[in-house]
Design brief:
Elements: E1 3-8, H1 12-23, E2 28-34, H2 37-47, E3 51-55, H3 63-71, E4 78-83, H4 88-97, E5 101-104, H5 109-120, E6 125-126, H6 131-141, H7 155-165, H8 170-177, H9 181-195, H10 200-209
Parallel strand pairs: 1-2, 1-3, 3-4, 4-5, 5-6
Helix pairs in contact: 2-3, 3-4, 7-9, 7-10, 8-9
Organism: Nonomuraea mesophila
Keywords: DNA-binding, Phosphoprotein, Transcription, Transcription regulation
Domain Response regulatory: 4-120
């Protein structure tokens, strides 16, 4: 199945670089481009992509506002947010408004491809360069999560959560724990439900906040 992608960035050179990287893959197709958040929303509603690669700092309507609008549609696309080291506030805002992945613009192209494919599979991916600062800052900005939720997890679910915190995909978790990938998906769904969070990224942040992982 081809992964349909819309690229949103106000810099033509960046859009060109992203398109060349993504369109060069046999399983990915760039179906639309946008130069600001408003146009990104229009392209997403028209083109119906699986993933939107969204710059967070754009003129007129920024990426945060665009993500918020896309999150409100009936079947929203997965959003991969792009940011730089000096725009952390945009990064945390994107997480709170519904983005599923976060990359720095200077990330390796292979990480971009991995992120797009991960989001298409319903997973999340955070650039390793910003993971620690993301977790620390999100803990400061977010309401305190319910206490005691970790006690609801089984021993196996805790192992899966630790693997998620290590950045492993479902397939990698399955190999690590010697179980079927479908079993991992079931565990992840139960973890999200028990912790009261929406995404894998939020589950990992919860695990860090509550000391399950260092």
């Amino acid at each position: 199945m081809t992964i349909r992608v819309v690229i949103a960035d106000d810099q033509p050179a960046v859009r060109d670089a992203l398109r060349l990287t993504l369109d060069g893959e046999p399983d990915i197709e760039v179906v639309g481009e946008a130069a600001d958040g408003d146009e990104a929303v229009r392209q997403a509603l028209w083109r119906r992509p699986d993933v939107v690669v969204m710059d967070l700092r754009m003129p007129f309507v920024d990426g945060i506002a665009a993500i918020r609008r896309l999150s409100a549609v009936e079947t929203p696309p997965r959003v991969l947010a792009l940011t730089t080291f000096d725009t952390d506030e945009y990064l945390f805002g994107a997480l709170q408004t519904g983005a599923s992945g976060f990359l720095l613009k200077d990330s390796d192209p292979e990480l971009l491809l991995r992120a797009v494919r991960a989001l298409h599979r319903g997973q999340g991916l955070v650039d390793p360069q910003v993971t620690t600062r993301l977790i620390r800052r999100f803990a400061m900005l977010s309401p305190a999560p319910p206490t005691g939720a970790l006690e609801l997890l089984t021993a196996r679910e805790r192992e899966v959560l630790e693997c998620l915190a290590a950045g492993l995909s479902n397939a990698e978790i399955a190999r690590t724990l010697t179980v079927e990938e479908g079993t991992v998906k079931t565990h992840v769904a139960r973890i999200l439900h028990k912790l009261g969070v929406r995404t894998r990224v939020h589950a990992v942040i919860y695990a860090y906040e509550h000391g399950l992982v260092p």
